[in-house]
Amino acid sequence: MAKYVRSTIAHGRVTAINVERAKKLDGVHAVFTFEDVPENKFATAGHPMTLTEEHKDVKDRLLLTRNVRFMGDEIAIVLAENELVANAAIKLIQISYDAYQPLILPEDILEENARQIHEGSSNLC
Predict the structure, then answer these.
(1) Which residues in 88-105 are b (16+ Cβ under 10 Å) and which e?
(2) pTM of the model
(3) Residue 72: C-alpha distances to residues 61, 76, 84, 106, 119 (Å)
């Protein structure tokens, strides 16, 4: 059984994560965080694959991330013998965040110094 550990904030950055207590729980096979997996970006928009560059979806997602862009973003994953153990392990993981003000209103998004939601790109589609 695999279960994601999801962010509890809408926008920010993970400053610290401690998974040691979760790893020691009986029935937990492994715990992985954004520090353990390669940063291979992929697209998630769901459009059909294409060979035409201008029609390709932007590769802006990671399997696990330190940079939180929405409530529930995936920052770690627990592999356990069953869902009960996985849920218990998730509760043992300690996470600290640097929370940012979410960009909700168009005026906030269009501000000259607005934080980039998708690193390296404009906040506009």
Answers:
(1) bbbebbebebeebebbee
(2) 0.75
(3) 14, 11, 20, 22, 18
CATH number of 2-110: 3.90.1170.50
Q: What are the boundaries of each domain within the chain?
A: 2-110
Q: What is the DSSP letter of 114?
A: P
| Maximum CA extent, the chain | 51
Burial class (CB in 10 A: 0-12, 13-18, 19+), 46: exposed
CB–CB of 22/28 below 8 Å? yes
* 42-82 residue pLDDT tens: 566 666 666 676 766 666 666 678 888 889 999 999 999 99
